Amino acid sequence: MNFKIRRAAKEDCKDISRMIMDLAIYEKMPDQVKISHEELERDGFCQNPLFECLVAEVPEEHKNGIGTALLSKVAEIGKKKQCVRLQLSVLNWNTPSRDFYAAKGAQDLTVTEGWHAIRFDGQNLDNLANEAPKD
């Protein structure tokens, strides 16, 4: 693997904000982005953060196993916190992402309002967490 996964730092928030907007543009929903990098800094890097974030440091962005590594790391963190499932939302037209999650053992639970609810639980969550890169 030619990348490193680490916990995000406050200094990453501008880049994280940019990536959120890039994703929203890809999903054809740029008007739905309502959070600024200042809000990310405030809400994610305080005494009791409202979210956790991982960053992949890579020389190239795609096809390096980064998606699998990040997803597995999220599963590993969730399992350590005794989470029993990992649930995601995917737009109905985003077949590459749906296929990626399905190949990892996710169940396609619903098709409503153009979203697919994706869940990892039980053995599939365990398997995903076990694939996480070791520090």
Topology as a string of helices (H) and strands (E): EHHEHEHEEH
Shape verdict: globular
Mean pLDDT: 89
Major β-sheet strand ordering: 3-5-4
Radius of gyration, taken over Cα atoms and rounded to an integer in Å: 15 Å
Walkthrough of the structure:
With 135 residues, this protein is of the alpha+beta class. The protein has 2 domains: 1-64, Aminopeptidase; 66-135, Aminopeptidase. The chain is 41% helix and 21% strand. It contains 5 helices and 5 strands. It has helices at residues 13-26, 37-44, 66-80, 95-103, 122-130, and strands at residues 4-7, 54-57, 85-91, 107-112, 115-121. It has a 3-stranded antiparallel sheet with strand order 3-5-4. A two-stranded antiparallel ribbon has the order 1-2. A hairpin with a 2-residue loop joins strand 4 and strand 5 (115-121). Helix 3 crosses helix 5 (122-130). It is globular. Keywords: Acyltransferase, Transferase. It comes from Haplochromis burtoni (Burton's mouthbrooder).
